Amino acid sequence: MSNITMQDIAVMSVQYVQHTFEFYLDSMRRCGLKNVDLWGGAPHFWRYDYASNQAVARRIAEMRRQIEDMGMKVVIYTPETLGYPFSYSNPQQALRDRTIDFMEASMEDALNFGTDKVFLNTGCHPRDLDREEGWKRTADSIGRLAARAERLGVKLVLEQLQPYESNLLLNLEDMKRMLREVNSPALVTCVDLVAMEVAGDTLEDFCTQLGDKIQWIHYSDSHHEILGTGEYGRAKLEGYIRTLEKHNYQNCIDLEINDSIYWEDPHASIQQSADYLRTFLPER
């Protein structure tokens, strides 16, 4: 049985979108956390801000030095796709190809940052078009990415979304279907606990039915709120941890306290959440 500790807690840098990357790292230091979920979006790191792949590599090397000099490490790379013009499902082949090109480049960026995990979700298919056709194109796109990921030694970490975010992969049954249709060892699962609750699924069912395919957890209180301030309560929040320990989960618990109400002071939201976790998680 695993013993999850504060050393297994990661923080998404997207929560600091209105602050500099240096502020994010200093906030992590003040919170006593070391696992970086590095968001690939402006103003922190957006690869298309650089004129060449060489310039991209130089910027990644600079950021990696900053991170490692503070005793931290990148544990997953999360390139921005939801808020930017990308799609796995759109009928326009050029748009899908551009999305795949971006994600393939993101896999190489992840390796340069020092992690073999790249985060993704299905995004939203145009709601006025046929969902099943969009699903088929999405599965094909992710399959193409997974083939590339296998060659690079990268894991693609796929999450569910909520109905307001997507009309594609929303629940455990959808996740099982996508894993089955893509059928690649490179495609693994992130369980987003908020999306899970909205769908009426349970973490026990995810763990029982997907096993070691679960390699990431997005963790927060309800509506991606600060731990202890939402609707879930301590019994449920601690219960998630104990369920993961029961199933010998070996990866990070990633704080997704990313509601825009916290953008003004993201440090306070993460500090409060870390303090809450320390009431039932040991340091190591």
From TrEMBL:
InterPro entries, A to Z: IolE/XylAMocC-like (IPR050312), Xyl_isomerase-like_sf (IPR036237), Xyl_isomerase-like_TIM-brl (IPR013022)
Transmembrane segments: none
Ranges of residues in domain Xylose isomerase-like TIM barrel: 28-279
Origin: domain of life: Bacteria
Coiled-coil regions listed: none
SUPFAM superfamilies linked to this entry: Xylose isomerase-like
Pfam assignment, any one: AP_endonuc_2
The protein's name in its UniProt record: TIM barrel protein
